[in-house]
# Entry
Amino acid sequence: MVLPVLDAARLDRLIDLVIGADPLTIAAQVVPDVAHLLTPRSSFVHAALLVFPDDERDLVSALAGRGFRCSLPVPSTIVRDRLRIRNGLTEAPPVHIVHAHTTLADRTIRELEIFVAPSELTEAAARERVSETESHLAFAADPTTDRVRELCDVLSGDGMVRDGGGYNPHENTTTLYFRRPRPTGYLYRIELLCSGWYPETLADHLDEQPLAAETA
# Structure
């Protein structure tokens, strides 16, 4: 059981970065000019990738071969819907999330978030492998409103543009996405994870009115 060649190469590239670099170097892949401002105010959580294997077990096997242990797949709704809209699909394809982690020699834990879509989406897969739209680096902000806004200002001040977000009431986490308007590499998105409910910050990020937590 093996991954498609292009997905295997993309996965290896991401793993090499995650296990071979410190958070400052990892952040510098997307925000080289402000990585030194981002990393002291947050913690690196994971790197993410969208792949199109023939069988999810091929992905698990490939990750195991690089020393990663996987969680059970869980359904993805956000990436599923984004994938459908971007590629003009009539129906939303089944997309799952596999979380994987490994422990480095210094006992540091490194994590991956892999989105798994059907290999039958041949044309969509070809486009997504080039665009890397779902690839991103995730950082967790200190849980204070001032710190979250400070990090938003750091990213926006570096030219990152807002790229959506939301609130997960099950995990009590507010998520804010940023991206480079003109990508220069395969990583150009940042996911900022904020423990807690920040309706005004999220509304400002989405350019909408604040929502009640129970309706988000």
Q: What stands out?
A: The first strand starts at residue 42 and ends at 51. Confidence is low (pLDDT under 50) at residues 209-216. Residues 42 and 142 are 6 Å apart (CA to CA). The domain at 5-215 is CATH 3.10.180.10 (2,3-Dihydroxybiphenyl 1,2-Dioxygenase; domain 1).
